[in-house]
Each structure stands twice: as C-alpha cells, then as structure tokens.
Amino acid sequence: MERVENMLGAGFPDVDGYFSPRGAFQLELKSTARPARPATPVRFALKKREAQIAYMRKRWDLGANAFFLLQVGEGADRVLYLAPGNVGDKLKAGILEAALAVECVNTGIFKRPFSYEDILKAITTCRRNPALQ
After folding, report:
1. For a tag site, which of 3, 28, 33, 130 has the least CB within 10 Å?
2. What would the mean pLDDT of 69-76 be, rounded to a whole number?
C-alpha cells in the first residue's frame, strides 16, 4: 500500500495498493465525529471534492476495488465503514449513520476490535457491480 499525495492531478484517492493474490485497490480516506443525535446526518469533508467523487464512481463502475474508507467517531467508539465507490454524492450531501450502514452492508462495517487483515480481505474481494461479474 502507498499513501498518495498527488498535487498535480485532481481526484486521485489517498491510498493505492495491491493485496496478492486478490488484486489492486484504491481507498479514499475520510473521518468525522459522530453526531450527538442519530437523526443528524454524518458529514464528511467532500465539499469541493467533485473530482474525488467522480474518480471513485468511475472506478467502481468499471469494476475496480475503489472504496471510501470512512471513520465515524473516535477511539473505542469508532466504526469504520467500507463504502462502495459510487456513494460519494450521498456522502457529500450528508447521510444518517444508519443509512451509511445500509450502503456498506455488502462491503464492510468494522467495529472495534477489528482486524486490519479482515479489512484488506473485504477491500479485495467484494466487487459488487453485478453487471461486471
């Protein structure tokens, strides 16, 4: 895995990796505090990030392992959501954590304690675009 800081091209994800023998993947990393009330949408820093959203959607639609890895909350209370690359517009608008969980049910929801190996396995095995399978 490589952490990518691309100052020349817009939209390239934060992490580019390869997990042998399963294949390549890309992750856009975002985190936010958990809202005080469940009825308050979770908001990630995606305003003015249309290039990131478009890049992830395009990769996902092509069948790539392209995900948003989202952290909601902090410390022992944090939950990681592995969201498919095609949900960027919903994330940008703000999404209830319960709705985020529904979006991630087929890709991955990781509560502490979680295994980074389990996360890597999910990233490289859960292509969910039925048109490409």
Report:
1. 130
2. 91
